[in-house]
């Protein structure tokens, strides 16, 4: 590996990291404005024009807030939990192909890696719930355990349909395989299961059981304040962006789309389509958050095991049957 | 093995050892579980260094990601932060016999490595790496599981089915709870 390659690699990582941080900060603003809009409110519009400086003001506030650590907390685990949450969320981007030539790493088992890292991210919530030494976070941590395991399974099985279609675990090759037909058309069942399980995996309403505020105060981050709370917040929003990017890459054809900037700037139009599709999925997430009421916990578990998992299995059987006997 | 790989290996191996030792020695079961997760993660990194990315991903996905979550789910019910477990009981001669067991285990390990030709195999490191990569590709693993190792594979699934049935029977005995745990 030459020096230029190393420098370019570091630059790519920095670009992706900074863009993701900014996107996450503004996603909070976009979400608040949209939810306000859906609910016939105004939303944050005081800081800067259209409230555009609001995320920075929030960041500064969180950075300078006083930090409270519960006396009964298990200090080491208490400090570790937000870090796990954040690192796992950011690590996933490293294997996602943004355009045909712009990606950090093209790994031949990228999908497995994504599932593995996102399952590690769950530990952030679980350990935060336990180490706070307080009863509401503990219940939240237990809920997170059960919910994550159930929905991770459905998520993994939904992805297997795509793997069967593409015949590879590499995300870049999966996108290349969608040049003629985006996988959400033949894999519509898998796409639906993936989106629902993705909402649950990112801990978003209507599946945000671990932080359901009218039962559990604020769930696992009840006892966290200042920057540590912000780290959970960051982790959650980056997870939303991750699910959006994954849905784009796996089902919506990734960077494929008409070359709207002419044949010379094919890379730019690829980037445009990738970002547009990701934003569409994220908007869908905000939309259902503002629209649907929260599930009850036992309904959530029953739905995961009795509806989503069988649907995902059915999808695998149908896809495998088509692959084996028709093609 | 180049310099970067060596550095990563030393870090991963150190983490694996610290994780294993910490798991046995920590006095709080949640800390033990945390150390065990660190150990699994370090093992996954070592699998990656041995050019077996599938095994690495599965190691994290299955052991660190799923099984340990279930362990923690149970531990959380019984252990609070700051709680210390002191084991005051021990069997007679326990230290002596465990020492012997450790020595025997190390002998078996070294013998196995020696018989496997690890200490003399400098000439075909490259070809060995190629072979490993071939053996651990998703395709090779899949076809091996469904052809040569089909019987053990099916027997394992039967065993898991029996365990699952046992769990259902145990759970059903004390009334019908609405929280059902399934693996």
Would you list the SSEs of chain B in sequence order as H and E?
HHHHHHH
Number of strands of chain B: 0
Which ranges of chain A are low-confidence, i.e. pLDDT below 50, for 5 or more consecutive residues?
Answer: none
Rg from alpha-carbon coordinates of chain A: 20 Å
| Morphology of chain A | globular
- Name the largest protein-protein interface in this structure: A-B, 38 and 32 residues
What oligomerization state is this entry in? heterodimer
> What kind of sheet is the major sheet of chain A?
none
Query: Termini distance of chain B?
Result: 40 Å
Shape of chain B: globular
- Count the domains of chain A: 2
Class by helix and strand content of chain A?
mainly alpha
CATH architecture classification name of the domain at 1-81 in chain B: Up-down Bundle
* Largest sheet properties of chain B: none
Low-confidence stretches of chain B: none
Strand content of chain A: under 5%
Strand content of chain B: under 5%
Roughly what percent helix of chain B?
over 70%
- Compute the average pLDDT of chain B: 80
Figure out the total of helices of chain A. Answer: 11
Describe it.
- The complex is a heterodimer of chains A (327) and B (183).
- By secondary structure, chain A is mostly helical.
- The longest helix of chain A is centred in the first third of the chain and has 36 residues.
- The mean pLDDT of chain A is 82.
- Among the domains of chain B are: 81 residues, NADH-ubiquinone/plastoquinone oxidoreductase chain 6, subunit NuoJ (Four Helix Bundle (Hemerythrin (Met), subunit A), Up-down Bundle); 35 residues.
- Chain B is mainly alpha-helical.
- Helices cover 74% and strands 0% of the residues of chain B.
- Chain B is globular, with a radius of gyration of 21 Å.
- At the A-B interface, helix 3, helix 4, helix 5 and helix 11 of A face helix 2 and helix 3 of B.
Q: What would the keywords be for this entry?
A:
heterodimer, A: 327 residues, mainly alpha, 2 domains, 11 helices, globular, B: 183 residues, Four Helix Bundle (Hemerythrin (Met), subunit A), 74% helix
């Amino acid at each position: 590996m030459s020096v230029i390659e190393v420098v370019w690699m570091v630059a790519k990582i920095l670009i992706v990291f900074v863009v993701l941080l900014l996107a996450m900060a503004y996603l909070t603003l976009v979400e608040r404005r949209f939810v306000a809009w859906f609910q016939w409110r105004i939303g944050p519009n005081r800081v800067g024009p259209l409230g555009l400086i609001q995320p920075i003001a929030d960041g500064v506030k969180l950075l300078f807030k006083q930090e409270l650590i519960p006396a009964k907390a298990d200090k080491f685990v208490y400090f570790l939990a937000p870090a796990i949450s954040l690192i796992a969320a950011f690590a996933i981007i490293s294997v996602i192909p943004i355009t045909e030539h712009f990606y950090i790493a093209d790994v031949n088992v990228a999908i497995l890696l994504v599932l593995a890292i996102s399952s590690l991210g769950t530990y952030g919530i679980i350990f935060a719930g336990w180490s706070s030494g307080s009863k509401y976070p503990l219940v939240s941590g237990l809920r997170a355990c059960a919910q994550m395991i159930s929905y991770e399974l459905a998520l993994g099985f939904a992805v297997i349909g795509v793997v069967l279609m593409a015949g590879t675990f590499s995300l870049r090759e999966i996108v290349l395989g969608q040049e003629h037909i985006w996988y959400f058309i033949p894999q519509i069942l898998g796409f639906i299961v993936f989106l629902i399980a993705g909402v649950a995996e990112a801990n978003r309403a209507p599946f945000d059981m671990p932080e359901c505020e009218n039962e559990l105060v604020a769930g696992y981050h009840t006892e966290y304040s200042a920057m540590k709370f912000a780290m959970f917040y960051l982790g959650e929003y980056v997870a939303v962006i991750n699910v959006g990017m994954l849905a784009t890459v796996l089902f919506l054809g990734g960077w494929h789309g008409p070359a709207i900037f002419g044949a010379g700037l094919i890379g730019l139009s690829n980037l445009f389509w990738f970002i547009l599709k990701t934003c569409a999925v994220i908007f869908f997430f905000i939309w259902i958050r503002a629209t649907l009421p929260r599930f009850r916990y036992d309904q959530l578990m029953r739905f995961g095991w009795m509806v989503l998992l069988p649907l995902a299995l059915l999808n695998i059987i149908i896809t495998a049957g088509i692959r084996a006997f028709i093609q | 093995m180049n310099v970067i790989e060596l550095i990563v290996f030393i870090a991963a191996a150190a983490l694996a050892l610290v994780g294993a030792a910490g798991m046995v020695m920590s006095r709080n079961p949640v800390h033990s579980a945390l150390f065990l997760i660190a150990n699994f993660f370090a093992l996954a990194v070592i699998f990656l260094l041995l050019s077996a990315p599938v095994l690495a991903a599965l190691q994290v996905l299955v052991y660190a990601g799923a099984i340990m979550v279930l362990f923690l789910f149970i531990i959380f019910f019984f252990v609070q932060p700051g709680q210390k477990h002191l084991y005051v009981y021990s069997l007679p001669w326990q230290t002596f016999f465990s020492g012997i067991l450790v020595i025997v285990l190390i002998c078996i390990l070294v013998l196995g490595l020696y018989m496997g030709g690890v200490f003399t195999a400098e000439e075909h490191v490259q070809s060995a790496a190629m072979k490993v990569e071939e053996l651990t590709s998703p395709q090779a693993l899949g076809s091996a599981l469904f052809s040569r190792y089909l019987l053990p594979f099916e027997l394992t699934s039967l065993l898991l089915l029996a365990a699952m049935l046992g769990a259902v029977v145990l759970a059903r005995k004390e009334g019908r709870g609405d929280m059902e745990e399934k693996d």
